[in-house]
Specification:
Blueprint lengths: L2 H5 L2 H15 L2 H9 L16
């Protein structure tokens, strides 16, 4: 990753956005809702992230 990208604040903005979304969403409920859609049965839900 280029050092100017790291200094640009983009990684911090990504972290802030992720934290905001996590605080607004009930992830277990979202996963259950997605899992209940018959058209995508068996597709599964994968959460990739840290924390």
């Amino acid at each position: 990753m280029p050092s100017n990208f790291i200094r640009s604040g983009v990684p911090d903005a990504h972290t802030t956005t992720r934290q905001r979304l996590t605080s607004l969403l009930d992830l277990p409920e979202l996963y259950r809702t997605i899992d209940a859609i018959p058209a995508i049965v068996g597709a599964g839900v994968v959460h990739i992230g840290s924390g």
